Amino acid sequence: MSKVHLVRSGLDELLAGLQEGDPVPAERDLAVRFAVARDTVRQALHELLLEGRVQRRGRGTVVAKPKLVQPLSLKSYTEGAEQMGRKPGRILVAWEEVAATADLSAGLDVGLGLPVMHLERVLLADNERIGLESTYLPLPRFARLYDTFDPETSLYAAIRATGVQFASALERIETILPTPREAGLLLTTTAMPMLHLHRRSLDSEGRPIEVVRALYRGDRVAFQTVLVDGA
């Protein structure tokens, strides 16, 4: 077993005896405890950081909150966060009209180059930045949102309030690294793996509702779904 794995095993035992928010001993103290170089401790702590088990706070490291587990369903981010007892929130980054690219034209069934509504928001859980969401909506269908929607609240609730019901969605999740801008908005680094979610939602008549591109911090969010045997 490598020295990093030995340190990881020791840290696993150490973390099992700590509570959320408790400080993790300093690198130099851990190096002495496990009789290894500080670089070895730093590598083990970095692995725990990427897994979301610890997080940086100031110059130190503390035990992290459990990851926010989001359901893979047509529920909104708000509903998923509240189910875990977390307080959802949002910071508005942009709310604008943009010209439909080829992908947006196909995804939203609008003419190429025609304006679509773009809403970009940082997603919060208990005031912690965990995601960055860009939603594109067909403008003629949802222009009224400019007068009725508070961008710090649930977009799905606002859409449903217009009488539109979500019926189905195609969703794809991949792992990517953020751009410097995205990392800055999420208060992390470009080395932090992100869960990249792409979704296209339809109503009961098969009409497009939205195209969404969202990034979630891999150390703070996980996704789950229920699988049922369809045989």
Quick description:
With 231 residues, the protein is α+β, with helices and mostly antiparallel strands.
Description:
The chain has 231 residues and is of the alpha+beta class. It folds into two domains: 61 residues, Winged helix-like DNA-binding domain superfamily/Winged helix DNA-binding domain (Arc Repressor Mutant, subunit A, Orthogonal Bundle), CATH 1.10.10; 157 residues, 3-Layer(aba) Sandwich (Chorismate lyase), CATH 3.40.1410. The protein has a six-stranded antiparallel sheet with strand order 4-5-6-9-8-7. The protein has a two-stranded antiparallel ribbon with strand order 1-2. Strand 8 and strand 9 form a beta hairpin. Helix 2 crosses helix 3. The N and C termini lie far apart (44 Å).
Please render the helix and strand layout as text.
Elements: H1 3-16, H2 27-34, H3 38-51, E1 54-57, E2 60-63, E3 68-71, H4 77-83, E4 88-99, H5 102-108, E5 115-125, E6 128-138, H6 139-142, H7 145-148, H8 155-161, E7 166-176, H9 180-185, E8 194-203, E9 208-217, E10 221-224
Parallel strand pairs: 3-10
Antiparallel strand pairs: 1-2, 4-5, 5-6, 6-9, 7-8, 8-9
